[in-house]
Amino acid sequence: MTPRPLPGLRRSGSADRAAAAADDAMVTALVRLRGRLQDAELPFDLPGVEVLRRSRAAMIDQLEDYVIPRLTTLEAPLLAVVGGSTGAGKSTLVNSVVGHRVTAPGVLRPTTRSPVLVHHPDDAHWFGQDRLLPDLRRVEHVTDDPDSLQLVPTDAVPAGLAVLDAPDVDSVEERNRLLAAQLLAAADLWVFVTSAARYADQVPWEFLRQAAERSTAVAVVLDRTPDEAITTVSTHLARMLATRGLKDSPLFTVTEGPVDADGLLPRGHVADIRGWLDSLAADTDARTLVVRQTLDGAVRVIARQTYPVSDAVADQARVATRLREEADRAYDHAVEEVVEACADGTLLRGEVLARWQEFVGTGELLRSLEERVSRIRDRVVNAVRGKPQQAERVTTAVESGMETLILEHAEAAAEAAYASWSQQPAGAALLAGAPADLGRASRDLRRRAERVVRDWQADVLDMVRSEGADKRSTARYLAFGVNGLSVSLMVVVFAGTAGLTGAEVGIAGGSAVLGQKLLEAVFGDQAVRTLAERARRSLQERVTTLLEAERSRYSELVDAVTLRPGAGEELRVAARRVDDLRYARAKRAGASTTTATTATTGATGATGATGTTGTTGTTGTTGATDATVDPQKDPGDPQ
Ligand SMILES: Nc1nc2c(ncn2[C@@H]2O[C@H](COP(=O)(O)OP(=O)(O)OP(=O)(O)O)[C@@H](O)[C@H]2O)c(=O)[nH]1
Ligand SMILES: [Mg+2]
């Protein structure tokens, strides 16, 4: 069905074209803002984050459910959502206003669990799946499914206006409360129903406070009020509305009356509201202004609420960086310690030293070290007669010594990183969700460390083998064997003596000096230095890689929370763009205030004309009057 053209919305002339272009630009900016909000996750439990998470989710919902689809179809019927206190008579009111039963009232609380949208048959195409509230499945039958939206076409409501019966905002059931809030956030106009018994309750007022803050168009219905209490209660309620920024909202009262077999109130009881809604439906310009008022208010608040979220995103990114740095510090330190211990003689103690001394022998040989260097070398070489099994034992001792060293430092790093993460809520939460106890080194670290040391030893063996390729037949090479020369090279690496000479070697290396002399005798000084350097680097790389894997248990936890760098700033920029467009539009609207005011007269007049029999007389202008956007209205807005 083709939409009926609405006279007041026909665009012509350059001003209208400019307005249409501005709307398009706003839609683009809002789509971008929604994307940035979706990116702006707040994974860490920092103080106050819960409120911001809720605010972010609500903003995304409102952009998707209402603001973006509404702005792209401004000519769609006005959607009045009937929401409010539990059992206040919302469904009864909807049925009575429509004139027949379209939604089920009931004595049990809560009764309405699934929204019912009543519209004129000609307006059906506006309420398709891809428009307002796209998450709610459209159905045409009565249901209790909160994920469904029942559509009821009837010509008992005027074209251009749809009425939605919502669940209770203060329901005992959370699902109802959430759905009610979602539906109100998708309304052009709130028909907020409360009763004599409930009008002072806190929850409905929290909703009304938000409506006032957003300049949402609201009509308040004081329902189910005994005749004798009407004056007192409605006067009090009107005062409350006025002091809470809703003095311009029309207030209707509906006297508690008998309901008929269908659950409908006598026609006269709802005549005022029906009359007001009819006049609104008939006045395209007034309707447009109501839509604009609510829409602009929603956009204003969304933009404003985005800034604290973007600050929070930046805070979260800082927390992520700090956590990463703390884990890095612990593991950098571990790598440093292991690398240092592998080159400062630390490893040349205990078992390794004993097995090495067994291999090279001690005593006289060491004492002779003080003699002239050239003679030392020959003596050493001649003295050492290590057996292959002895070299094997040194290898084994090195293996276990290094494993212990690596494990010790991996444990210390895990403990340190764990301790510093535990001290902050964000870190503690990540640790709690970790698949393993990160306060300890990985369970299979010993096995992996063993492999690393063995691989390194094989590497050293290869180095010696290829360095000695042309010396295999020399007496010295044969005397010590490739294994003997390899363990010597390991010991030289551990002693950190390669590169030192003479007395320095003696001081630094003790018995390790024998290894160096021995290697020099076979390969020559320079080659030994190069070999030792290569072996040292190979060890360092392997240890670093091994501990890197340990560190990644921490860094992966931070990475998993996907905080894109710059997400906070991008969000801010997106909100600012929306604000810029808002101000530009407000300026234009300011220039045409006169026209806008004239346009509201129809609806305002209609409201006034209802006279709301039995009401307080506080019924003022419709919210539509507010549609003239005042750029100064929100001094808190960033400029
Ligand atoms: N006598 C009388 N009964 C009413 C009136 N308004 C509502 N009721 C009854 O009060 C009960 C609750 O009314 P509903 O219309 O279901 O209230 P609701 O606000 O839609 O309730 P929820 O959807 O559960 O939040 C029903 O049994 C209605 O028949 C009234 O003005 N007079
Ligand atoms: Mg109901």
Walkthrough of the structure:
With 639 residues, this protein is of the alpha/beta class. The chain is built from 20 helices and eight strands. It has helices spanning 13-39, 49-72, 90-98, 174-184, 202-214, 230-243, 271-282, 284-341, 350-360, 364-367, 373-383, 388-422, 425-432, 445-467, 475-495, 502-509, 513-523, 525-559, 567-591, 593-610; strands at residues 78-84, 116-119, 137-139, 148-153, 161-168, 189-195, 217-225, 251-255. An eight-stranded mixed beta sheet has the order 3-4-2-5-1-6-7-8, sandwiched between helices. Helix 6 (230-243) links the parallel strand 7 (217-225) and strand 8. Helix 14 runs antiparallel to helix 18. It is elongated. The model is unreliable at 1-11, 363-373, 501-505 and 594-639 (pLDDT under 50). The structure holds guanosine-5'-triphosphate and magnesium ion. Guanosine-5'-triphosphate binds next to helix 3 and strand 5.
